[in-house]
Amino acid sequence: MDASERYEQLIAFLSTHLPAPVEQEDHNGLLTLTGGSPGEVIARLTHTSVIIEEYAVRWETPFKPVVHPRRVGAVNWRRLPESALMTVVGHLIKGAREMRLARYRECRFCGRTNPPEWQHGDDTCQSCAAHELGELLRSLRDQGRTLLLATHDEDFANTFATRVLRLSDGHLS
Q1: pLDDT tens digits, residue range 104-139?
Q2: Where are the alpha helices (DSSP H) in the chain?
Q3: How far is CA 11 from CA 8, 31, 32, 81, in A?
Q4: CA angle 83, 7, 55 (to 5 degrees)
Q5: Closest CA to 93 of 170, 165, 16, 31
């Protein structure tokens, strides 16, 4: 079997062994397959190697998550016999998925298990954290307390405020 046939066979193997759904992207000869929704495992395939990574996210800013995977292993697919290659890659995928799922946490409010990037702290998901904040702000508003809140989310401000001021181009309106 020539290299191009093995390459296609490896793509088919990865597509069927990664968690569904599998997204595939090609960037200048580097084929990236991401398995799972939310992402669990990333496989990168070059003309000589396959790299298996655990899906991970790093927050560059509070509003900008960036995929920042953790490498689990790399194999030179041209040097291994077919059966050994498939076995090794299968084990790497399984290990990466287990590592990813081990990082999931249960929300103490709703009981859902979420990936770490969906958590607000160790034991609260972002949805429940927003709900709890909303309850607190409503309670303070109903008590007649004055709050100064700065946000980019106008809908959020309108939900809880009795008066909204806007700062635009240095002018308060």
Answers
A1: 999 999 999 999 999 988 889 988 988 888 888 888
A2: 3-17, 82-102, 126-142, 154-160
A3: 5, 9, 10, 16
A4: 85
A5: 16
Residue 77 · residue 34 · CB < 8 Å: no
Output the six-digit token pair for 86: 């498939």
Distance of CA 148 to the CA centre of its chain: 33
Distance, CA of 170 to CA of 119 (rounded, Å): 35
For the entire predicted model, the pTM comes to 0.81
Residues 6+ apart with CB under 8 A from 46: 29, 30, 31
* Distance separating alpha carbons of residues 107 and 113, to the nearest angstrom: 6
Q: Are the C-beta atoms of residues 30 and 50 closer than 8 Å to each other?
A: no
133 φ/ψ angles, rounded to the nearest 5 degrees: -65, -40
